[in-house]
């Protein structure tokens, strides 16, 4: 994508201070978008905002817990107060950790489902209401996982929540199309430089097992996710909605 492809767009990225979220924020800023990053960790937000400002000084951060609808409303309100509108929402905030399903506590289940599924809903509805008030088009992008295609033992909470987000993506794409709001989903496979990589593939042996299942023979990068995301939220993708884009080097096709 060339510089200026997202000029005059205002984008909120949840979980935007680290990993894939920060990579998307940096790329959107490089392409000209005004940026709002949100997460719970203020120190991470401050650091990320400094990096993003090197591409576009129109960046703010809002400490936000997406599990809290009041926090979400504040996030959208701050974005509109600063930049006057909202064009793009990326639901990237997530939580995940391995735990056998028979040992999973209610708190463990709820902690992930509340972030991934409920948080995505709260943010999507708040953003869509603002887009409708503006009487302008909008793009919502949800970041999920290839686990929704195959399941993943040890992450029942996250896999179920992200599968719910995929179903929500398809439903809202149809329901909100009349307002010019597009809703899409990216299913990344194993991606280097993320919290998930540390938690789900913690040892060289586990990582090697994962790599052996990927036909392209490597993990993806956060920049590759950001590149795809940039296209999907841009006007170049104006006829794409309700779609799930798989970014995993062909791993979901390999039955070995």
UniProtKB/TrEMBL annotation:
Enzyme Commission number(s) of this protein: 1.3.1.34
GO biological process: bile acid metabolic process; fatty acid catabolic process
Keyword NADP listed: yes
GO molecular function annotations of the record: 2,4-dienoyl-CoA reductase (NADPH) activity
Taxonomy, superkingdom: Bacteria
CDD domains cross-referenced by the UniProt entry: TER_DECR_SDR_a
One Pfam family here: adh_short_C2
Assigned keywords, A-Z: NADP, Oxidoreductase
Keyword NADP: yes
Enzyme class: oxidoreductase
The protein, known as: 2,4-dienoyl-CoA reductase
Upper taxonomic lineage: Bacteria, Bacillati, Bacillota, Bacilli, Bacillales
